[in-house]
Amino acid sequence: MVLAGDGLIQTCSIEQVVAPIATHLCYLKLLSENEEWSEQFTQLETAAYAVAKTSKNMALIASRAIVESDDGVMKMEMSPLLESLKLSSQHVILAAQKLSIQPDNPEHREELIEATQNVLLGVVKVLLVEDDATLRKITAAAHWLLESLTQVGAATNIRSLLKMFQVYSKAMQLLHNLVMERIPDLRDCRQQEHLKACMETLKRCISMLHTAMYTTIKHPTSEEAQDAKKYILHQVATTVNDIIITLKTNSGHMTTGSCGYYTEKRKELLRLLSNPDFTLLKESKFDILLRDLVFHSMAVANTSRRENHSSVNANCQLVLQLWSEVSQQTKFSLNKQKSKEYEENLLVSLMKQIHKLDDAVVKASLYQVMDSFLITSCPLDHLVNTIHYISENESDSDLKLDTIQPLSEVFIAHADKMAEVASFISALANDEKSLEGVENSRVCLMRLKDEVTPLLLELGGDSVQYQGALHKLINVQLRWLEEKEQLLNAFSNVINVKAYIHLAVQEMKCDMDNCIKAHKEQDSVLVSRCISSFIGRVSQVVKFVRRHVDKSDDPIYRNGLLVLVKQAEYSVAEVTGYTSDIFNTFFDEEEFSSLVDRLTVSIKNTNILCEGLDGLQHPHLLSPLREGARQSAISSPVPAITDLQMSTNDQAISEDLLGGDENLKMKMKFQNKLSEDPEPAKVYQAENTEVLMEPTLILDSKPVQTPQSIDLLPLLCEVVRMTKGKDVEALNTACTEIIELSSCYIQATKEAAGIVDTTCIQEMESLRSELVALTPQLVQTAQETVMNSAKSTDNVFRHSTQFSDLIKNTRKIMLPTLPSW
């Protein structure tokens, strides 16, 4: 089964032989996992005889090929393989006979599966040995052509040129015939096109080769003729070597690019089955297409939830059962009217079952998206924050990589899972654009994942290497968050958003039930986990719907759907508020009952949002809700910022810092940071423009308190503004500047430790430690808030205030030291 997609099999002719055996093996494995299908094993003796007969016929044909061939390598490799294949085919018959006597014996089942697998491997090995002989024949013809090309280039007179050119023409003709015979049998369309282009190039080179050689012989002193000769000889040799390399390169797993891998196979298979002529199935790729479809479906099932795993595999079994009947019918059709009706019904049944399998695969893929992207705390964030904590609290200056290795492994496993889910979603793509979007984001995430491990190794170096690696790691962290959002955006172009929301609502109901059960058992950890999962699902739904809104060109539809989005966001915000209350009141029954009411309302509003995708449940055109949605969309939800001019003190500081020394670069950066508005900007709370909600959908909620006025540095005001405005790209830029600002102050405090007053050293060290710990918390909180519409910006305000205070207090201590620094 692993041979199907690893590129080892390059030709369609081998695939045509291997596919039915591999599919049969797949059927056996699925049957062995399902006790309810044990009676099917008693009917496999006929199929076992068919497999054995196929392998014996192949062994007979291969034996004849050995006798007729003069390839010594093939004779040496083929003989032992044929003996092993004959024994394996006989073993299949014996295992099937045992199973027909004792169908419930698991050992007999495993024996039949193992025997069939040995036949498959034996058949593949025999076919690959024969195929290698074909490649050696083509390669020998290519080398003959290169040798004759060398002789043509060495010709010194017209007579010898004509003689050598005749040999060259024969070698060219032989290579052309062998390659053109090989091309239609190749699986990889890219290899086919490349080889055709190479042969066309060789064909066009013949005339120039003759002309260049003739001119060189007639005019040996002509530089133009010599240059033309070198060019054409190099061109022909390069093209021939390119042909050899292409033929020896394993074909890649690919699609035509017009749609995803799974979608392509399903469409081709259904198109083939829609033709009632059974004779077409014999000469088509029916077995190959069905095998690829089932293999992909089983790959999705193997990484899915238990219920989805069972559903997909059960549908695969039914598809394979019908495939087995179709295969038998194509071999033993009686061509009678009754047989024709049976064949048509069989094809229709198989098509219906493929549609059912498709529904199961899509559902399992959607659940994988829901599960893999629900994690509220990114493993990469946890890894980076832990590195910060260890580096600031360990007495040893060297970072011990053993302590962060488990977190690194968790991140890598999570990244690989995300990539796997992305490949499943890209396989479902119906068009080239959506396929390209998912694949590009998947590749970018894998590239970022590969950057993390080398950076972790650099953290074990000196302080300069450590700071450089940490800065790069934080940059990777920001890019990772951004690219993950791009991947989810690409998902929205592939999946059915309504189907996704429907599944999410079912999971939200399960989360609420589990939360109620955990509350009865006074399990606060499980309650917190269930509510976190609930909020995460709503956040996912809101993100997908917002992307769906952006794709619509209908302003009335967009506005109406935005109202429903706001209702969903507001209801989950209430869930967040009441969650804090129940933990603060130690699971007070009244408070928990209010939380359950909010969970119920949130589920109801999410259901309404799902119906809203079809234009239902939208408010009336004259409803004030629509006006509220428009105002919230165009009005700035960000506090106003009062800009102040730079003080003359900081201008003087700038002049002092221009006195160069070995740390000039870092001090210049520090000076630039100090020159940024030393006085805090005043942030005022914006007027309340909250959208009015339908009383039938939203219960009364407790008012959320926000700071009336907060003193923030301008850069921190930008962070708050971008967070509330949900501007991810601008926030990432601001976070990068925060990290740079923090690094400058941290480095400056280290350098200033020797010149500040002894009374200030302890205070400055305390400020530096707090700044180191707070910086990643501020960045992470801002990133999580901007990505989660249900999260309040209160934590961002709080961290920003603390950060501003730390910078101001550090500045007060360091400003007097600058003249002597």
What does this structure look like?
With 821 residues, the chain is mostly helical. Helix 3 packs parallel to helix 5 (106-154), helix 7 (189-218) packs antiparallel against helix 8 (223-248) and helix 11 (286-302) runs antiparallel to helix 12 (306-332). The protein is globular. Helices cover 77% and strands 1% of the residues. The model is unreliable at 1-5 and 632-710 (pLDDT under 50). The protein contains 28 helices and three strands. The two termini are 71 Å apart.
Shape: globular
- The low-confidence runs, each spanning 5 or more residues with pLDDT under 50, are 1-5, 632-710
Radius of gyration: 35 Å
Q: How many DSSP E strands?
A: 3
Please count the helical segments.
Answer: 28
Main beta sheet strand tally, sense and closure: 3 strands, antiparallel
In helices, the fraction of residues equals over 70%
Cα end-to-end separation = 71 Å
Q: Which percent band covers the strand fraction?
A: under 5%
Mean pLDDT: 79
SS-based class: mainly alpha
Strands across the major sheet, in which order? 1-2-3
